[in-house]
Specification:
Creatine Kinase, Chain A, domain 2, 2 domains, alpha+beta, 5-stranded mixed beta sheet, kinase activity, Ubiquitin-like (UB roll), glutamine synthetase activity
């Protein structure tokens, strides 16, 4: 799929539409900051001189070392050769294609202009399969070819620690001090402690063109939750990645380390990265909404009571997510630690099974529809991802599976979570999600995986991304943890 035919991101305010606009926009600047996204959702970028940047923007882009797809989040080269970047070709350059629609200025860095890039193969000029922005862009393009706009929202829960990068290293990441003590969800008192930092997160987000819908404390010592405003899926993923960058940058200035690790404390709730999704038609109407005539009694041919206020396309979309969810788990939960958050039950509302239900926070997919919201707000909340997700891959997986469900007109795999009896649960009639990154990666990489279907992600992506997760598992299996030493050193 060529770059020209791929969907573009919703432009930010004042985004340039031509090189002349760009030159005028940067007339008083001497440098520009650019960044792309690696498979772990980490921004990899640099400063460029204005002259070099304008030259790159006027052509195909600029060269960027492919090693960012050949090493992990700590710059350790992957354990084996992978498709995109490898030792054999000496980590040759990729083409970094500048996305002018992502223009914004970084308010805490003297308003330096900033742009995101996508990565292209230098020979074919096609998007590389492992580029997170490219992966989501291709799924969005597929939806747009059917006249639908994928829309998404993202909610982050994250701990704050009264630490610095230096203090973390000095303490060996142990005995960390939470920003505030106690379990204080939705607290008006706890936000008055460190109020400058708390308010900076909101205010700097608006300046950085990341509109927020809500920002409050969540239950847990020093935990915040921030809901990013609903928008087109590509823009949403950009905003989600950049919000993490913003939070960590603002935190460093205030002596705070915000952590998006999924489960930093074993005995406390983890940190979610819930994703809300819907499809809209060219007039902006929700594809998932029922017709006006069905608003009183619901859709007559709905499979279950919980889905009677979803359109038929919405029910198929939901069925597609549910059928494929176990095969794409590494794209939603990409870390070793992330699976420790998925404990199931209603204590922490972190689902570990293939379940759905109307307005159910205990389910993997929560249906949000009338009567609790107006038809225009009909959507689904996928509650499996943690705050450590890569939002591009997570949204790519959700929309790719949902579109597949519509294409195949898939039936729902079973009753809603509220209709499952304890006997059915004990009898294994509820399909469980993989319980570790190792099991999830094995499932995604098996030959019959839905993720391998060409209409979903294809073999190239699965082999490369799966290889990066195998590397993560290998490092974990080789690690000797504090728990092991405390348990076995004296008594084994």
């Amino acid at each position: 799929m060529s770059q020209e035919r791929l969907a573009s991101v919703t432009p930010t305010a004042n985004a340039p539409s031509s090189i002349s606009d760009l030159e005028a926009l940067l007339k008083d600047d001497v440098k520009v900051k650019v960044a792309g996204v690696d498979v772990d959702g980490i921004l990899r970028g640099k400063y460029m001189s204005k002259e070099k940047f304008l030259s790159a923007a006027s052509s195909d882009g600029f060269n960027f070392c492919s090693v960012i797809f050949g090493w992990d989040m700590h710059d350790t080269v992957y354990s084996r050769e992978l498709l995109i970047s490898n030792r054999a070709n000496g980590y040759r350059d990729l083409i970094a294609s500048i996305d002018l629609a992502t223009y914004r200025r970084i308010p805490w860095e003297n308003n330096v202009p900033f742009f995101l890039v996508s990565f292209l193969d230098p020979d074919t000029k096609e998007p590389i399969c492992a580029d997170p922005r490219g992966a989501l862009r291709q799924v969005v393009t597929k939806a747009q070819s059917k006249g639908w706009r994928p829309i998404a929202g993202c909610e982050y829960e994250y701990f704050q620690f009264k630490e610095t990068p230096e203090s973390l290293a000095k303490k060996n990441f142990t005995d960390l001090q939470p920003l505030t003590p106690g379990m204080h969800g939705y607290s008006l008192l706890r936000t008055q402690i460190n109020s400058e930092y708390f308010n900076d997160l909101f205010d700097e987000s608006l300046k950085f063109q990341i509109p927020l819908e809500g920002h409050h404390t969540e239950t847990g010592p020093g935990v915040y939750e921030t809901a990013l405003a609903y928008t087109d899926a590509l823009r949403m993923a950009d905003n989600a990645i950049l919000f993490k960058f913003l939070a960590k940058s603002v935190g460093m200035k205030r002596g705070v380390v915000p952590s998006f690790m999924a489960k930093p404390w074993g005995n406390l709730p983890g940190c979610s990265g819930h994703i809300h999704v819907s499809l809209r038609d060219e007039e902006g109407k929700s594809i998932f909404a029922v017709s006006d005539s069905e608003l009183k009694t619901g859709r007559a041919n709905a499979q279950y009571e919980d889905t009677k206020f979803l359109s038929q396309e919405g029910e198929w979309f939901l069925a597609g997510i549910l059928e494929g969810l176990p095969d794409v788990m590494p794209m939603l939960v990409p870390t070793i630690n992330g699976y420790k958050r998925l404990v199931g039950g209603e204590a922490f509302w972190a689902p570990n099974a293939v379940t759905y239900g109307y307005d159910s926070r205990a389910a993997s997919v929560r249906i949000i529809s009338p009567p609790s919201v107006p038809p225009s707000a009909t959507r689904m909340e996928v509650r499996v991802p943690g705050a450590d997700m890569n939002p591009y891959f997570a949204m790519s997986a959700i929309f790719a599976l949902g579109l597949r469900g519509i294409e195949k007109k898939l039936p729902l795999p079973g009753p809603p979570v509220g209709q499952l009896t304890q006997e059915e649960k004990k009898a294994g009639k509820v399909k469980m999600l993989p319980q570790s990154l190792e099991a999830a990666t094995e499932r995604m990489m098996r030959p019959e995986s839905i993720a391998r279907e060409e209409a979903v992600f294809g073999n190239d992506f699965v082999d490369h991304y799966g290889g990066t997760r195998q590397h993560e598992v290998k490092l974990w299996n080789e690690a000797v943890t504090n728990w092991e030493v405390e348990r076995y050193l004296e008594l084994a």
